[in-house]
Design a protein that fits this description.
Layout (H helix, E strand, L loop, with lengths): L3 E6 L6 H12 L2 E3 L2 E2 L7 H9 L6 E2 L3 E2 L6 H8 L19 E8 L10 H8 L3 E6 L4 H14 L4 E7 L4 H11 L3 E5 L7 H11 L8
Parallel strand pairs: 1-6, 1-7, 2-4, 2-6, 3-5, 7-8, 8-9
Helix pairs in contact: 1-2, 1-7, 5-6
Length: 211
């Protein structure tokens, strides 16, 4: 089975899209953002295409797209529709190829009146990677997110830290979260496909991503 993951984060703006682009570049994966809000400011699909230099043929179209940069449940409400999981189906891509699916916002972002991002993860049945910051406060945010993911009985494979390396925060997350940190994305002055692939080679546990 090829490498296929669902990328979630401790909150909005934590670095999920950069991590998604990195994995797409390193694994030559397809990219998929099932639910996209804030399209007036651009889309994560376009960002990943640019950063990872992915051809459009390797980017799966969003199932739901909303203009306002707000939570999916609110964006859908304003559009007069309801996000329904049954309409979000795994994309038809060759079985031998990798896939990176990215969530919207954090772990418990609501997508409708009764379901959260965790429900989408369970629906898709993909192993999960949690993206967290390295900065102050990350221990609490990461442990709370891990608790929510585990309460939803999801297959959480590891944490990816984004920011300047912080060995104490990393050790605390691994110890108290009982989870491996499988990668770290340091502060980057430039981001392109070659840089992302180099970061993967130097700062990620490549064994986790082997087919």
């Amino acid at each position: 089975m090829p490498s296929r993951f669902f990328i979630t984060g401790t909150d909005t703006g934590v670095g999920k899209t950069v991590v998604s682009a990195l994995l797409c570049a390193a694994l030559d994966a397809h990219y998929w953002k099932p639910i996209q809000t804030g399209t007036r400011e651009g889309t994560d699909s376009k960002t990943v295409m640019h950063l990872a230099q992915l051809p459009r043929s390797r980017v799966v179209p969003e199932v739901y797209r909303f203009t306002p940069p707000v939570s999916p449940h609110l964006a859908a409400q304003r559009a007069g529709i309801r996000i329904e999981l049954r309409k979000i189906r795994m994309p038809h891509i060759p079985a031998r190829e990798a896939l990176v699916a990215e969530g919207a916002g954090g772990v418990l972002v609501p997508i409708n009146k009764s379901q959260f991002m965790t429900h989408l993860m369970r629906h898709l049945k993909l192993p999960v990677l949690l993206v967290s910051r390295t900065a102050l406060g990350t221990i609490n945010h990461t442990l709370l997110s891990l608790a929510a993911l585990r309460a939803a009985r999801l297959d959480v494979r590891g944490v990816v830290l984004v920011g300047p390396p912080n060995s104490e925060n990393r050790k605390a997350i691994e110890r108290y979260g009982d989870i491996p940190v499988v990668g770290n994305v340091p502060k980057l002055a430039k981001i392109d496909r070659n840089v992302l692939r180099a970061v993967f080679q130097r700062h990620f546990d490549r064994a986790v991503f082997q087919s």
